[in-house]
Amino acid sequence: MPSLSPLLLLAAIGAAPNLANAANSWIVPGAAWLSTSNTKIDAHGGMVLQRGDTFYWIGQAASHSVQPYMYTSTDLLNWAPAKNPQNSIQWMWRPKLAKPNGSFYIYGQVDRNVQALISTSITDNYSVSGGKVTLPPNAYTYSDTGMFQDDDGTWYLLTSADHNNVQINRINSDGSIGPRVGLMAKGAYEAPGMFKVDGIYYLIVSGKTGWRSNPNSVFWATSLGGSWTGPVGIAPEAEKTYNSQNTFQLTLKGSSRTTYIYMGDSWDSKGGPDSNYVWLPMTVDKASKKVSLEYHAQWKVDVKTGAVSTPGLKTRYEVQHADVVGRDGLAGRKKGGGPISSDSLLTFRNVAGLGGRQWVQIHYRVTDRTAGEAHISVNDEPAVNVSSLNHRAGYHHVVPVELNLRAGSVNTISLGMTGREEAGIVVEGLEVVED
Length: 435
Ligand code: GLA
Fold this sequence. Notes:
Blueprint: H1 6-11, E1 44-51, E2 54-61, E3 67-73, E4 80-81, E5 93-98, E6 104-110, E7 113-119, E8 127-133, E9 144-149, E10 155-160, E11 166-171, E12 177-184, E13 190-197, E14 200-206, E15 217-221, E16 229-233, H2 240-243, E17 245-253, E18 258-266, E19 276-285, E20 290-293, E21 300-301, E22 308-309, E23 314-318, E24 323-326, E25 331-335, E26 344-353, E27 356-366, E28 372-378, E29 384-385, H3 386-389, E30 398-405, E31 408-419, E32 425-433
Antiparallel strand pairs: 1-2, 2-3, 3-4, 5-6, 6-7, 7-8, 9-10, 10-11, 11-12, 13-14, 14-15, 15-16, 17-18, 18-19, 19-20, 21-22, 23-32, 24-25, 24-26, 26-31, 27-30, 27-32, 28-29, 28-31
The protein binds alpha-D-galactopyranose.
GO biological process, one term: carbohydrate metabolic process
Keywords: Glycosidase, Hydrolase, Signal
Family: Belongs to the glycosyl hydrolase 43 family.
């Protein structure tokens, strides 16, 4: 194999990963998520609606003038772009889906007002339904949108931000926005989402820090009219909601358990197409009313039973068996162990692959993620920054990235760094996921 110098690899950083099409077998918080058409799923600030065996994911498409885009799935892993994106309107933020009567509606924020779209088909042919409206009772404007359907089938639009408060408005059976039924005025919050467990309403909200993540929290109440008890954090504070912002809570009623899923956005610095998603199961302590995100680097849910699982088959490669290769391209005598430096690469050889797209969990620590970051290359492909593959880079010590591996014990995986040595990037090993 020709030796690649770290400098050559650095020159190539930023190139998009070229991954062969294959089915997705895991939900990977923070990672780039590919659709069945091999495009990056572009549906931010959205929600998932289940109808029968099919899930519909709607969200704002950052690469298409913030139009509402939709994807469909039967397993919550593999998402097909809907045949006809809703292209009648642009700059609609945080679109949500509801079915208050025989038609389907999309409600989203346009110019800080509610704009509704209507169709008889859930996935296509939406047309603009009426003009932009402010919210009853006081002609409120707002920025963020949430959606909740109660047990009796009634739909509620959640809104937040302009007035800091979270407001809950009923959606009338004619699709218009009805009266305010609830108001949560306990601080400056946005990005509302709601779910209900045993008669208790749980309202998850974010703080107001723009595209930067913050510790999201939960309030609870016995009725939509309040009063609301909270806030309580839903994840350890330093994790900043695992580097995400709330958008929706999905309730999956399986045959063996009901699973509650947190859906969040892991925004890039401007809410652009590089933004990713953080979906995690939630645990609800019914006695204390505490809601906690259950963190998994990779997981999936059986949509029939509701059971959550994590990878079982993994092969681990310890850093002690990796080579440190210097600028001259020659393997040093020293084996890996200390922090990686800007003029060397840590190289794992003879890594076994199945052939095709495969998840590799990088186990590493970062002292200061603002100082620099790790990059990775596999075989003779260009190096890419780990954060371009997974927004959990630097935030967590197990970061799965999807790579193209050749079949057999023939793969070479190298890790290097960009930025300053103070980043303190210490790699412990790699785990190649085989299921
Ligand atoms: C908040 C909102 C996002 C987006 C950013 C813009 O975080 O929740 O949807 O509007 O502000 O700064």
